[in-house]
Amino acid sequence: MRAVDPRLLQNARAAKGYLVVTVILGLIVTGLILVQAALLAHALAAAALGTGAKALAATLVLLLGVVVARAAAAYGGEAAALRAAARVKSQLRRKLVGRCLRLGPAWLGGQQPGRIASLATRGLDGLDPYFARYLPRLMLSVLVPAAVVVTVTATDWISGLVIMVTLPLIPLFAALVGLHTKAQTRRQWRLLAQLSGHFLDVVQGLPTLKAFGRAKAQEQVIANVTREHRSAAMATLRVAFLSALVLELSAALATALVAVETGLRLLYGHMPYQAALLVLLLTPEAYLPLRAVAAQYHASAEGSAAAESIFAILDLPPPPPAAPTAALLTGPGAPVPDLRSATINLNGVTVTYPGRDLPALARLSLAVSPGELIMLTGPSGAGKTTLLRLLLKFIEPTAGDIGVGGTGLAAVPADPWRAQIAWVPQQPRLFPGTVAGNIALGQPGAARAAIEDAARLAGAAAFIEALPRGYDTPLGERAGRLSAGQRQQLALARAFLRDAPLLLLDEPTAHLAPAAAAAIRGVICGPTAGRTIIVAAHQRWDATDASQVVALGEGRPSGRSSLLASAPALAASP
Fold first, then answer.
1. For 514, which DSSP code?
2. Hey, how many other C-beta atoms are within 10 angstroms of the C-beta on 431?
3. Distance, CA of 378 to chain centre
């Protein structure tokens, strides 16, 4: 970890005003330190020489005012620095969330949610010591020693020379210790992120672990990771304590050296009493900021390590766009095709995920006309979800291209494109809030009547009305009070409420009871008001209204399809 992370300072521009206040108050503290030492030396010299009590009282009153002003300035500087830290943390959290959203679900699927959550919460909270204590003391470690050396040298050049020679020893020792601290802190943070991610996975999968009798085994795994984190934390603390010992010893020896040479010259009458007092009072002040900044370096190391991890995520490039053919390329900023009238054409599309040898989707060619109902069938891993991700622009084709009404999909902006799509994933996400709020997630401001109609269409009205407060019933985290089928029905209601011309359904009846599943199939296969519907399912439905049934599976090109007798021909690649 560097003494000052330039990227953290760049992100501190939003808190520029607070940092300016911190700097100004730091300058004031520096001046007050010199004034305090001068007044105290004058008061002690006056008391020793028997100066009148009135003059001594005036000096003591001034000294008291300086002490109070110094404490107030130090408090104000720390308060302003904490405000700056809050601004920087808020800005970094927004950037982290924005970058994760831009990287998309494909990237997030390969990450540990607990690690990212730890970065955005506990990790960034570690920046409070960095801004509130480390940076102000780092500034004082430059200002105060320089001011003390100048003042002491002007008073007694020999003492000033001794301070100038011994002063660099403290930052030298601090830098040597800091090299070891950096490695220890990174290891501690890595283990904390691993522990957070694994703990979150265990909590989410607790029902499965209990059902298969593996809860005790995971308990032991968490105990092992916790033990490693504890060892790393204690090693970091041990380094911090030892570094404090080294720095305190160095400062004490340097101060003692100045005190000895000053005392000897004072004893032989080669130095005025008040000047000696001023030198002795200012000498510890020269070393104190350096010792303090070294101690706060350890306190702020965790936040800086977390910030480095966040910057590593922020530096990740977004997924590269596909290279569509020249006939379809219209350039970035192309007009968004209207899915109510535009045909979607997949031409030899292949998708291979990073780190995998076999493609998830191979040479798929498919034409989706407006208003069609298309069934995607096949076993797990056949590429059904991958095809939906392509249409959602969560991923890009490795080869081939997708055209929409003569426009390359890669050139179409993602947000307005997704505004025309309603999507129900295999495991829909419900958020803390009311039932009505969750249904209206994709259609903010929707009327209550429209929400109720959507719930009725999805077959969710009966159980919603049986809840304590009906549509106004608050859902807890992950809607734990609802069954998997009920959560699926709310997600379907959310999709039905959204007036989107393209509806993507990934296993919409996988968690429903037979009667409820049959009702949902009837809704999907019935009148759809001109919507284009693409349904991914493990097994083929008895859907006589489906215009195409695309069978995806291993061991054959993914573009092969078998059609219902009434369906139009489908152009598939060999």
1. H
2. 11
3. 37
What is the spatial distance between Cα 293 and Cα 199, in angstroms, rounded to a whole number? 35
> What's CA 555's distance to the chain center, in Å?
41
Instruction: Read off the pLDDT of residues 206-263 as tens digits, 9 standing for 90 and up.
Output: 777 777 777 777 777 778 878 877 777 787 777 767 766 777 777 788 888 888 888 8
What contacts 297, CB < 8 A, 6 or more positions away? 1, 3, 134, 174, 178, 181
Residue 394: CB atoms within 10 A of its CB come to 20
- Tell me the H-state helices in 123-214: 124-125, 127-129, 135-155, 157-166, 169-204, 206-211
Residue 479 neighbours by CB distance under 10 Å: 21
pLDDT category of residue 561 using cuts at 50, 70 and 90: very low
Measured CA to CA, the distance from residue 44 to residue 274 in angstroms comes to: 8
Alpha-carbon gap, residue 235 to 185, rounded angstroms: 9
> Are residues 152 and 159 in contact, defined by beta-carbon separation less than 8 angstroms?
yes
The continuous run of DSSP H or E covering 493 comes out as helix 484-497
H or E stretch including 399? Answer: strand 399-404
Rounded CA-CA distance 294/76 in Å is 22
What are the pLDDT digits (tens) for 342-401? 889 989 888 888 778 888 888 888 899 888 888 888 888 888 888 998 898 888 888 888
Strands (E), 316-406: 344-351, 361-368, 373-377, 399-404
Q: What is the three-class DSSP state of 511?
A: coil
Distance between CA atoms of residues 278 and 155, nearest Å: 8
| Parallel, antiparallel or unpaired: strands 407-408 and 399-404 | antiparallel
Q: What is the pLDDT of residue 322?
A: 44
Q: Name the nearest CA neighbour of 178 among 294, 13, 326.
A: 294
For the chain, give percent helix, strand, coil, nearest 5: 65, 10, 30
H/E element, 488: helix 484-497
Integer Cα distance of 263 and 494 in angstroms: 83
Single-letter code of the amino acid located at 297: Y
Nearest to 163 by CA among 245, 286, 249: 286
Burial class (CB in 10 A: 0-12, 13-18, 19+), 216: exposed
Domains and CATH numbers, the chain: 6-314 (1.20.1560.10)
Distance CA 228, CA 112 (A): 19
**CB distance 43 to 63 below 8 Å:** yes
Closest CA to 196 of 126, 120, 129, 128: 120
